[in-house]
Amino acid sequence: MSTCVAFLRAINLGAKRKFPKDDVVAVTEAAGFTGVTTHLNTGNVRLETALRSRAKIEAALEAAYLDDRGFEVPTMVYACADLVEVAAEAARLGEGHTGKQFVSLLKAEPDAGAAAALEARSTEGERAIVSGRAVHLLLGEAYREATISNAVVERHLGVATNRSE
Predict the structure, then answer these.
(1) What is the three-class DSSP state of 72?
(2) Are strands 134-139 and 100-106 parallel, antiparallel or unpaired?
(3) Are 49 and 33 in contact (CB under 8 A)?
(4) Sequence-ordered list of residues with C-beta below 8 angstroms from that of 77, at least 6 positions apart, any chain
């Protein structure tokens, strides 16, 4: 059994995408996963599985969530070791940064050209740094007006979900 974390994109937004954490746990367990825990209603799901393929885990979860909810729930799965690396990179990049910091977690490894195009959008006040399946966004204090957002990340690199520091 391996432990991993699934990040669910765009749940609990508006009236039509409700997926309370207790329901997430129940559906995830019904799909055959064990040791399932969630954090609030964030769409962060810790689980244990005998499956070894990230793609198979994502597909199983997405099928179960679609069947239960009636809407697609894009799911990004990360091994715990991969998340440790993402967190270490975030800490390194955030040293001395005084604004807001986010990380967009990608469903797929980005194409080098697309990653470079996204990073080229960086300015003095906003930086996007692509590192594997993570995009670190270092934004200013007025981050709500930023021109680089998870929506921009998705336009360049495909499905992603965003988390803050």
Answers:
(1) coil
(2) antiparallel
(3) yes
(4) 4, 5, 6, 7, 54, 57, 58, 61
Instruction: Decide if pLDDT at 93 tops 90.
Output: yes
CA–CA gap between residue 26 and residue 36 (Å, rounded):
9
Dump pLDDT digits (tens) for 24-60. 999 999 999 999 999 888 889 999 999 999 999 999 9
Q: Across the chain, how many H-helices and E-strands are there? A: 5, 8
In angstroms, rounded to a whole number, what is the distance separating the alpha carbons of residues 34 and 123? 44
Measured CA to CA, the distance from residue 5 to residue 44 in angstroms comes to: 7
Among candidate residues 101, 99, 81, 82, the one with its CA nearest the CA of residue 91: 101
